[in-house]
Amino acid sequence: MATALGNAKDKELIQVHNATVRFAGDSGDGMQLVGSQFADLASMVGNTIRTLPDYPSEIRAPAGSLGGVSGYQLNFGDYEITTPGDEPFVLVAMNPAALKVNLPELQSRGIVVVNEDEFTEANLRKAAYDSNPLEDGSLDDYRVIPVAMTTLNDEATRHTGLSKPQRERCKNFFALGIMLWLYDRPMQPVLEWLMKKFARTRDVMAANGASLRAGYNFADTAELFRVHYHVAQASLPKGRYRRITGNEAAALGLIAAASKAKRPLVYASYPITPASEILHELSRHKEFDVRTIQCEDEIAACCAAIGASFAGAIGCTGTSGPGLALKTEAIGLAVMTELPLVVIDVQRAGPSTGLPTKTEQADLLMAMYGRHGESPAIVLAASSPGDCFQMAFEAVRLATQFMTPVLLLSDSFLANSAEPMPIPDPDLLPDIEFRPTATPDNFAPYRRDPKTLARPWVVPGMPGMEHRIGGLEKEDVTGAVSYDAANHGKMVELRARKVAAAAETIPPAQVSGPESGEVLVVGWGSTYGAIAAAVGELQQRGLAVSHLHLRYLNPLPAKLAEIFGRFRSILVPENNLGHLRIILRSRFPQAFEPLAKVEGRPFLIREITAKIEEMLKP
Amino acid sequence: MTSANPSATAANPGQEDCLRVLTRKDFQTPQEVRWCPGCGDYSILNQIHKLMPTLGIPREKIVFISGIGCASRFPYYVNTYGMHGIHGRAPAIATGVKCSNPELSVWVITGDGDGLSIGTNHLIHAMRRNVDLKILLFNNRIYGLTKGQYSPTSEFGKKTKSSPMGTIEQPIRPVQTALASEATFVARTIFADPAHLGKTIEAAARHTGAAFVEILQNCRVFNDDAFDVLTDRAARDETRILLEHGEPIRFGAGGRKAVVVRNMEPHVVDLDAEKIDERDLLVHNAQATSPGLAALLGALEPPEFPTALGIFRQVNRPTYNELLMNQVRDSVAGRGSGDLKKLLGSGTTWEVE
User: Fold this and answer.
1) Residue A319 — φ and ψ, nearest 5°?
2) Where are the domains of chain A?
């Protein structure tokens, strides 16, 4: 829906409720940078945002090649935005390859802003174009705005004294300038950011600033666009917000939890896409007594975290699917020794190396069952970038309260996607308390808390309670090595009951929408945004559709059976072939309709609405 | 730091352990020791029980971490804190322990399979990082717990259950591996010489940094007499060199044999038969910057050469745990103790009115 706001400066300003734009170029073109600048601006003027960076796994694929295209999609609006948007309305394509890769997803009648200077014969060949799409009529369904960005940028920055290649690198800011005008955004915050970012290289700052201004003014004065757009402030709850990605949020959640537990945080990790930013973020905050260890491999990382927990710190590790596979034996050790351990799995498309920079949710069954022996662990999943903060905090709480490994599932989409998060007040975060520590008089390594069934966390340095633990089965209470058959049966059961007991401390499942109806959509993890938007849309149309999102996957929250029983049918959309569905089918009598998308990309809203509509048909 | 301050331990009133002198009995556990009769591990355990009370470290501040294998049952038999880990990963677990609480004295117990096959990676990296760990590698050159397969240190051509026609693998050399990994303390000793064993482990205990000790150890069942040539009282003067820092490399009855280096190759010389100026003898320097000499001595093997026992290398380098905690301290000094409110409110922020 669009409303004309009048035509200051000759061009009509139209009010829209949201806009989806995508910046695309070579992986060295700085698209992620200007995309996130645009996102920051949108946030600052009060829009809700959600972003989706999409970059190749090669750091610098050959320039101009299809494989080297890097994109940054942003959806911003004046209502609660929960996805990066189904289809971009505006595509900024810095070269033919970027156009070719991204055009299929553009809305018809959408706007394409292209850097026409780059549409040379050589570049067209690299992008496998037989003819120039700017001339052959193949873009007739779109509004194409060709801009000689390279030339104009060159002229605008000539005065800075930088070399030609240096200046050419500024052209992403020229593109950003055009977009700022198109969406009626102020330039000032970007100029201020440039001043801070390039305080030490003032010529670079000046060149980028000049390019930004030139792009903005060019869009304003040249007859490029007949209209431009305005997205009003969203009515978010009052308060202070920050833009946050899932990986940043997970790191902050761990720091907050360790602070609340008054213990050092030891984060041991081996670099892996898309989890490495958690390690980067944590390594910058040593003033919180955060001790990061970049280990020699994934196994070492998990073992070091276990050792850290044994000695009394909050031991955490983070990885992605291939790394989780390597850590499984060590996680089994944490199950057996009943030590707190947090393992964050930022899932990516597999199997094997798969699509390392693309998203997927296909590690759920590995997180649940991917260990030998009866090896229960708590499994959590964050549902949005900001939720990674809450769930990382929860992971530490549960790991320490129940003396157990906790696997927290995030994914590439959540890890890199940004959204506004109300800044949590640390004073309102719960303290992470430990049960009264044992004393030498009553201490036995496996004497359990009657309620949680957790064993005491007695750590080296505490006198009079020296004890040995390990991977061999232990005798109940005493912790002595035991090969006794009945004891093993009992311990297997106790470990399972302990993890199940965590259900008592987790929030109840919440249905969003009517408590009963035609279709209940059950999701977990990063599908939250697309499901919430799809269900919201159908609810507005008066359809009896509700949404239940699971953040706790093992144990599951109580009373799910009752909720499931109140709906005629249940849909389970997942970025895998039906992992949650397998779990639900093994525990509940209802039928669960799958909706699978395993393409390395998140669901579009319309993919979910279409499926629900199909289920609603009589 | 592992050297405990006795006055600090007295600050924990009511803890008996801190107020009385510990004895070997304090370090024994009720757990039944389950190694085969005659196993070389008993001798090592005995030396540890003897050494522990002499270190001045309260029992609760000592941690033994092991992997999997016969040797790795060790922590169950020492009454300190301990963890019997998973195969090959003890150095990684121990690194986590030490970084979690640098005040602890952390010991790694591993074997030739655990430490140099499945866990070589972790062993190497713990040593190059110079994590302040005492690493005892029990080398019996065989897989005992899985009942008699060859190990990575088994000699070339060895016939075992899994190599009936003899192995076709060059063995890995523990001391060379430790030297190549830049361990700051590298030693070799043998189970059958309790005095040398005790002295060497004690030197490791008193070293700050990654201390690696290869302990040649007999497997009575699957590789009996593997080190007879070094243990036989009559022959051992001829088959081993006892390294002493600053002393010439001599052995044999009355020290009348020596090792000299010609064209970068070691040679055994008989001081009675050959006319050699004693000033030309190789002098052991465990503190040399270059690990070259230590590597040369570490590679001496029978039958051509005697086996060198003792400390090959002992140098000082800042430990990983110390450097890690320095960064924590520097961050606190520079930015103040972490302020959660400030951290959460950082980045791109804005106010919604």
Assistant:
1) -165, -170
2) 2-231, 243-428, 511-616
What distance in Å separates the CA atoms of residue B118 and residue B168, rounded to the nearest whole number?
A: 19
Comparing CB atoms, the residue among B12, B58, B92 nearest residue A300 is B92
What contacts B118, CB < 8 A, 6 or more positions away?
B67, B87, B88
Query: What residue ranges do the domains of chain B occupy?
Result: 6-246+286-338, 248-283
Task: Report residue A392 as tokens.
Answer: 């990382």
Contact residues, chain A, for B86 at CB < 8 Å: 303, 329-330, 332-333, 471
- Would strands A567-574 and A552-554 be described as parallel, antiparallel, or unpaired? unpaired
Domains A2-231 and A511-616 belong to one CATH topology: no
DSSP class per residue in B168-187: -SPPP-HHHHHHHTT-SEEE
**Length in residues, chain A:** 618
Q: From the CB of residue A557, how many other CB atoms can be counted at a distance below 10 Å? A: 17
- Across the interface, whether the CB atoms of A307 and B95 are under 8 A apart is answered yes
Gyration radius of chain B over CA positions = 23
CA-to-CA separations, B187 to A446, B190, B244, in angstroms, rounded: 38, 10, 11
Whether B238 and B302 have beta carbons less than 8 Å apart is answered as no
Fold assignment, A243-428: Rossmann fold (3.40.50)
- The closest alpha carbon to A75, from A37, A36, A20, belongs to A20
- As a whole number of angstroms, the distance between CA A51 and CA A38 comes to 10
Closest chain B C-alpha to A544 CA, distance in angstroms? 33
Domain B6-246+286-338 top-level CATH class: alpha beta
Across the interface, whether the CB atoms of B351 and A300 are under 8 A apart is answered no
pTM as predicted: 0.94
Tens digit of each residue's pLDDT (9 = 90 or more) over A37-69: 999 999 888 899 999 998 877 777 788 899 899
Distance, in Å, from the CA atom of A597 to the CA atom of A575, rounded to the nearest integer, reads 5
Instruction: Kindly tell me the burial class for residue A507, based on how many C-beta atoms sit within 10 Å of its own C-beta (0-12, 13-18, 19 or more).
Output: exposed
- Pairwise CB contact (< 8 Å): B348 & A480: no
Fold of the A2-231 domain = Pyruvate-ferredoxin Oxidoreductase; domain 3 (3.40.920)
* Cβ–Cβ pairs < 8 A, chains A and B: 229
Number of other CB atoms surrounding residue A7 within 10 Å? 13
Closest CA to B271 of B262, B258, B260: B258
Pairing of strands A265-269, B250-251: unpaired
Radius of gyration of chain A (CA): 27
Task: Look at residue B9 and tell me whether its pLDDT is greater than 70.
Answer: no
Residue B72 · residue B34 · CB < 8 Å: no
Q: Please state, in angstroms and as integers, the Cα–Cα distance from residue A411 to each residue in A69, A245, A277, A408, B190, following that order.
A: 21, 11, 13, 10, 52
Angle between helices A188-197 and A171-182 (to 10 degrees): 150
Residue A444: closest CA among A470, A464, A460: A464
DSSP-derived letter for residue B149 is: B
pLDDT tens-digit map of A294-353? 999 999 999 999 999 999 999 999 999 999 999 999 999 999 999 999 999 999 999 999
> Is A511-616 a CATH 3.40.50.920 domain?
yes
Q: What is the DSSP string of A209-221?
A: HHHHHHHHHHHHH
Q: Residue B139 is encoded by which pair of tokens?
A: 């080398």
Give the distance from residue B147's alpha carbon to the nearest chain A alpha carbon, in angstroms.
Answer: 19
Nearest-Cα residue of chain B relative to residue A440: B15
Alpha-carbon distance of A378 to B94, in angstroms, equals 25
Complex ipTM above 0.90? yes
C-alpha–C-alpha distance, residues A568 and A519, integer Å = 6
Q: Where are the alpha helices (DSSP H) in B155-300?
A: 174-180, 194-206, 228-231, 236-239, 292-298
- pLDDT tens, A156-190? 999 998 999 999 999 999 999 999 999 999 999 99
